[in-house]
Design goal:
The chain is an all-alpha fold and 381 residues long. The chain has a single domain, classed as Ribonucleotide Reductase, subunit A (Orthogonal Bundle), CATH 1.10.620.20. 67% of the residues lie in helices and 0% in strands. It contains 14 helices and no strands. The relative contact order is 0.10.
Amino acid sequence: MSETTTPANVLIDPRIFNANKTDYHDTPLLLGQDNGLFDTISKRHRVFEDLFNRMAVYDWRETEFTFQDCNYQFRTCSRYEYDLMITTIAWQWEADTAAARSMIRILSTYITSPALWKLMVEITKNEIVHASTYSRMVELSFDHPDEIITDVVSKLEALRRMERIAGVMSHALNTAIKIETGQIARSSTEAYDAIMMLWCALLCMERIQFVASFAVTFGKGNAGKFVQFSNAVSKICTDELEVHAETDFAVLEIEFGTERGIDFLQRRGGDILALVDDVRQSELNWIDHIAANGADKDPDLTIDGLRTEVDLNSEPVYKFFGFKKELPYLTGRRLPYMETMIKIDQVQGAAQEERKGNYMVGGVITNDEGVDFSAVAAMLG
């Protein structure tokens, strides 16, 4: 491909359109040259096109659900059950709102792969559907929905669950601003670390952090309560596990096959482990919170089962990064309705089969580009 030069009398900010872009044939996923033509001709990473197509197959809208049964159930349920469902909705609504409103703003500075950008725009649209679904739940399930908004944003336990991930997102946003204003170079270690820690955080949120709330909703649905809530959340859960989290795995896996990705792991492995630990612990803390407020006596829920679901979903993340972590609740009994609602075995099995180059999981690990990860594995193991 021949290089082009913008005529001297044509002034176009390269952040808007980079007419001098030269890396079309080898565009990196992150922090490459400013974007020029939206080129999907060079398909370096077909996984993102596959995930985009999967997202299209799962396409749905919040208007598919009326939530008529939920209005009656909220008016007749116990105070404990009312508070439990509000707390559950609060976290999911707030987290999906943050993803819907903030992620594309942050990622626009970092993503330079057209295929990844195309997928992330679609995922953002999907997050908007998720957030809109929770909004519709509240609108149609309560006689005075405006009052419920105040109740939702006052739930401290839900806000505390957001703090760790929100902090990483905020740092990535502040770093993006520094890149955009010329305070740091796009090629700097600071810029790369910010986006990589963000993607580690997204994986933790979408693979670990929703599961306890999902399990509570599904437990109620399994008991014949708030069934339309449960059915809507089942669709959200499928999106999160089969597309969003798989995108996170794919981005990290590709980057860990590069020299800068290996360097990141060597320098920031401890920070990644602390992040995964914190997210897992925040979910266990939330389970302790609802148990102390009556869930331990709820016939529709099993507290140990909720803890088991957290560890079952934490395990693939720890293994992906190569961390050896004792997860005491793995030996517990899986909640049978979880398999019914999200077919979690199939999701995990399919994901592990697709990630043929899992990193740092014992021995000498190489990816498709032949990179040896044994040194990193030894350090992190």
